[in-house]
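Example (one chain per record):
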Amino acid sequence: MQNRTPDGLTAEVRDWTEGAHRNAAGLASALGVSPELYADDPLTLLPALQNYVDRLPLNEFEQSDWITLHTDLTSYLGDLLVRRDGALWEKADDPASPAGYRYVVKATGLDGETHRVEPYDVVMEEFQHPPIEIARMIANAEAVLHRVPALNEESLGDVSLEELMGDEGTP
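Predicted structure:
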């Protein structure tokens, strides 16, 4: 993997992008994933991060704990999308936001169109549907960005579970 942050980003967005990466890489390091391994493929953090989240005493969390976890997961999700999917952070105007803007990730989907997702919202949605599943969080963001093939449910109607699992001949 390589840093695909283009030179054309504004200094503010570049700082945001680098800050998200530093936070995610620091989290990886704290969870035992080397900086080199994380830089090569941020997805290598997923098992350790899921294990960490599974062990957290969420029912004992105070607001500051939730903010820290939310920040860590938002940084990781955004950094993963940038480094694995070629996405870019961008500053988007949002008059409803207290700051008047939000940082979102944009990427070209498999449909050739540009799509945007706000990692902050994806993580918040994950918090609303416990248990927190890191892979589901990533999959939801990639689906919004159209980075996964669309499922043709009509064609699946005629396929058995065994065929999907590759067990057609197994009794």
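Caption: Strands lie at 88-93, 101-108, 114-117.
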